From TrEMBL:
Classification via PANTHER family: DNA-BIDING PHAGE PROTEIN (PTHR46558:SF4), TRACRIPTIONAL REGULATORY PROTEIN-RELATED-RELATED (PTHR46558)
All residue ranges annotated as the HTH cro/C1-type domain in the record: 5-59
Name recorded for this polypeptide: HTH cro/C1-type domain-containing protein
Organism per entry: Candidatus Kurthia intestinigallinarum
Keywords, ordered alphabetically: DNA-binding
GO molecular function, a single term: DNA binding
Length: 68
């Protein structure tokens, strides 16, 4: 699943550590999400979207038929 988390985080001027604390996960989890190695749960996706003041659809791009 594609997303714009890294771009949004940078636009807010947050480090990975600051962002991870704001959403309640480890920095390693943020790294894995940003690198596409981990897709967040629905609950975490909602937290991420809320922190940025965006809808889930504005943060995450669902690509149908890609098996992701």
């Amino acid at each position: 699943m594609k997303h714009c988390i890294k771009e949004l985080r940078s636009a807010f001027g947050w480090t990975q550590e600051q962002f991870s604390k704001s959403i309640g996960v480890s920095r390693q989890t943020v790294i894995s999400i940003e690198n596409g190695k981990y897709n967040p749960s629905l609950e975490l996706a909602f937290r991420i979207s809320k922190v940025f003041g965006k809808t889930i659809e504005e943060v995450f791009i669902f690509e149908e038929g890609r098996g992701e």
